[in-house]
Amino acid sequence: MTAKIAYGDVEVGTELPAQEFPVTRATLVQYAGASGDFNPIHWNEKFAKEVGLPDVIAHGMFTMAEAIRVVTDWTGDPAAVVEYGVRFTKPVVVPNDDQGATIEVSGKVAAKLDDNKVRVDLTVVSEGRKVLGMSRAVVQLA
Prior knowledge:
Layout: E1 15-23, H1 25-35, H2 45-50, H3 60-75, E2 81-88, E3 101-112, E4 117-126, E5 129-140
Antiparallel strand pairs: 1-3, 2-5, 3-4, 4-5
C-alpha cells in the first residue's frame, strides 16, 4: 500500500479529520487479552483505587494506538507512519457505566520534511484533559 495523500497537496497547518474513540471496560478487557497486559489497574476498580488511581484506567499503549488511527486513516496506509512517539501525561479514566470514556484526537501537519515526509502533531484529550503529550508522527506521503 501507499499513502493516498500527496506531499504536494499538504501545507504546514493542514488539519487531519478529528476523531473520537469510545473506551469501555469491555474494550479494556479485550485489549488486555490481545496484548497480554492483565495489570489489574486496567480492569479491577478496587485495586486501582487502592494504589491511588481515581478508577480503572486505559492501557497507555491502547491510548497511543487509538490516537495514531487519525493519521493512518488520513493517509490510508498504516505503513506510511515511519516514526511515532508520545509522552503519557494523564491516564484515561474509564468508569464502570454504559458510557465509559472517550478519547478525542485531532492532528495537523506541523512540518514538511525531506523525501515527501511530514511531521504530524496530535492533540489527544479525554474529559478535557490532555492524556498524551508530544504526540508526533513522521509520515511518508505519496
